[in-house]
Model the fold of this input.
Amino acid sequence: MNGRRAVITGLGVVAPNGIGADDYWKALCEGRSALTPIDREGCENLPLKVAGLVRGFDAEEYVEPRYLVQTDRFTHFAMAAAELAMADADLADHPDDPFGVAVVTAAGSGGGEFGQRELQHLWAEGPHHVGPYQSIAWFYAASTGQISIRGGFKGPCGVVASDEAGGLDALAHAARAVARGTDAVLAGAAEAPVAPYSMVCQLGYPGLSTSADPERAYRPFGTDAAGFVPAEGGAMFVVEDERTARRRGARPRAEIAGHTATFTGAARWTDSRDGLAHAIRGALAEARCAPDEIDVVFADALGVPEADRAEALALADALGEHAGRVPVTAPKAGLGRAHSGAAALDTAAAVLALEHGLVPPTPHTADCDHGIDLVTGHPRAAGLRTALVLSRGLMGSNTALVLRRP
Done:
């Protein structure tokens, strides 16, 4: 990347199992599940019964009132995670060179809760009761816009709309911006798809679990896997040029070493085998990493038997015999799939795993017959230098990201 290495110097997490990186990591290592019956108003009679819900989040603790009224819950999550990431990296807002700092986020569901509320006002009370922020709060680019305005960041900002894999693609976009000369990028994804309107939009997804039992609703790679459940939350990162970061005294936590994305079509899980394998090979090549140098895999783990089989075969195709030896984990089994935010949360988990030398377990799944070494039950101590994070979108995107301990 033209001599400029992109490193993660800060991370912020808003997740169903914890707010802040420390609480999130502790819950992951304990294998704690945050899946719960959906108790949101208006959702009682929908067939979707279980999700990963962020509890105890007070947006007023992280977001000023003037931004709160303009934004949806998904942007509240993103702004809070961004603030936590900036504090972790000791990155100030309103920098001396505002064009040296950028923002890139990914989103798939947008501001459904805000949009539903305003549409209800429209049909029940008329257009004069619809607020002006309806025009922006639902938009998938709202988080990028509000974070950049709030922080005074004027670098090459953007938004990634590439399905669930967007959480990884946003980080790759950030790394390439750093390679081209941007000093720092706030990058990541957060989602809030658990409102009646958003949930109805998801009901057509093949593979959605309708189980009412949080212990059985999402069991990726398990012999009784029967689909996935949605979640809210996400993570944001400060991505910087390594030399710039060290010069200002920041601690690199992980290097973004390689990334590749492919597309194989909506819900064509058999085809995702080739697409994901190609993405893995490409990410390894960019990272100059041999297959047997991968120390842990954070799997996409859809929980649909056909998709889980395709992912295991893609690992075998790309990693060869090492695919049966490398530890594989899917901590999102205890969180649900937060669309683009899921890959960002997995990346946060991978950074923390590299730092602590621990592979967090996969909740709920006890038996795996896919020929992979799935970590279950308890965290596994391991010498971790390089992590592979995988994501596939429901519309057909496949992405692989290689992280390396600096």
